[in-house]
Amino acid sequence: MPLATHPASPHSHRATAEALAAAARPIAKQYFRQKLAVEHKADDSPVTVADRSIEAAMRSILTERHPDHAIFGEEHGAERLGARFTWVIDPIDGTKSFVTGLPLFGTLVALLENGVPRLGLIDMPVLSETWIGEAGQPTRFNNALCRASGCTDPAEAVLYATSPDMFEGASRAGFERVSQAVRLRRFGGDCYAYGLLAAGHVDLVIEVGLQPYDYLPLVAVIEGAGGVVTDWAGQPLGLASDGRVVAAASPVLHQWALRTINGG
Q1: Is the CB of residue 140 less than 8 Å from the CB of residue 132?
Q2: Which domain holds residue 245?
Q3: Are 106 and 125 in contact (CB under 8 A)?
């Protein structure tokens, strides 16, 4: 079913997601390829004034439009958790790309209803490319319908991950088993790889160590394009997931990837 508009708000949820992306774009472009002070958080991930400024602008919109909704953001934490609706936001997914001048960073938005992803948005500010998915509706790329490749043969599949460095121990062994069976593997892209999967250019994305604001915005986008995305145990992704993600262009390819990763 289409995503319902919250009865207390004159703004549709999709319109809100689009407004969040529109607010983020000029700030990202303003700071992109400028000399910025880069700080490192407790987990050693980088953060800049751009990340914090974008999230502040996004939170202002959410507070104005949906004051009773929860917000879970990368830079400024959580508020009102436990509400029926939760917005999950990542102002710059791919800050390492951003600070090194690579335009493959994005702004991510998800809306959860009772913990279940109902809407997702991937916006690439420099590339002017946007994917948006809503539960029960086909995913759109720049307002045109898009579809995953539907690939079912691992030998024909293209595999992406942001970095080989994210895999260690058993997770590296599992990733290598998949890598050895596919046609091509590539690294880089952060959230962009998932958009490319939804648009039919990439067939598998396998990653570990992700946070809810990294993976929850991808769910509706991929599912609305005919793909499948879960954790490594095949379970639906939620706020409490462990950050291990498998996204695939078809249910058949997804099941094969799960078996292969887990040594089956």
Answers
A1: yes
A2: 154-261
A3: yes
Lowest pLDDT segment from 5-9, 95-99, 101-105, 176-180: 5-9
Cα-Cα end-to-end distance for the chain: 36
Distance CA 54, CA 123 (A): 13
pLDDT digits (tens, 9 = 90+) for 87-113: 999 999 998 999 899 999 999 999 999
Same domain? For 140 and 166 the reply is: no
Band of residue 6 on the pLDDT scale cut at 50, 70, 90: very low
Scanning the chain, the segments in alpha helix (DSSP H) are 13-31, 49-65, 95-99, 169-181, 192-198, 212-224, 251-261
* 165 and 137 housed in the same domain: no
**Alpha carbons 261 and 264: distance in angstroms, whole number:** 8
Please classify residue 137 by burial: count the beta carbons closer than 10 Å to its beta carbon, then call 0-12 exposed, 13-18 middle and 19+ buried: middle
CATH number at residue 60: 3.30.540.10
Please give the angle made by the CA atoms of 121, 209 and 155, to the nearest 5 degrees. 80
Q: Are residues 104 and 187 in the same domain?
A: no
pTM of the model: 0.91
